[in-house]
Amino acid sequence: MTAGSSALHTEGPRCVCSPETGADDRLGVRARMGAEPSAVRTLRRRVRSWLEEIGADEEAAESILLVVDEAVTNAVEHACPGKKCDVELVVGSRACGRGLAVMVADTGEWQPPGDPGFRGRGLGMIRRIAERSAIETSYEGTTVRMCWAEPAVPGVH
């Protein structure tokens, strides 16, 4: 990686919206934990529980869970080779408008995609499932942002 930071844009406009959360868990999910394999399951359960609580459409919820799993898994498997780092997940209403936003950030190091072989198609999947998405990299880590302007998620404004 070169000095400074860069943004790897996915198809469509860059998602600059951030999730809006607060002390009330009904507003979203906010969690930070060690980037270890157990984080994938733990964070998926928290997001699933919140989506069920707000009455999210089952198909929309499964799509959101799929991209959350992918982004968290990437942080766990690729961002922190040989060192300890954290992964942060924030899910909630878009702070800049209607819809839903997801942010997954790690304190690791960006690893450029290699030969995908039988794996390595997660970034393409995120591009297809999220209405807008962006990947931002810096020396402090990588942040994946995904937005949906009008998902079938009641209770998300």
TrEMBL record:
UniProt cross-references to CDD domains, sorted A to Z: HATPase_RsbW-like
Highest rank taxon of the organism: Bacteria
All copies of domain Histidine kinase/HSP90-like ATPase, residue ranges: 35-148
Record protein name field: ATP-binding protein
Pfam families with a match to the protein in the record: HATPase_c_2
Organism whose genome encodes this protein: Actinomycetospora atypica
InterPro entries per record: Anti-sigma-factor_SerPK, HATPase_C_sf, HATPase_dom
Coiled coil: none
Keywords for this protein: ATP-binding, Kinase, Nucleotide-binding, Serine/threonine-protein kinase, Transferase
UniProt GO molecular function: ATP binding
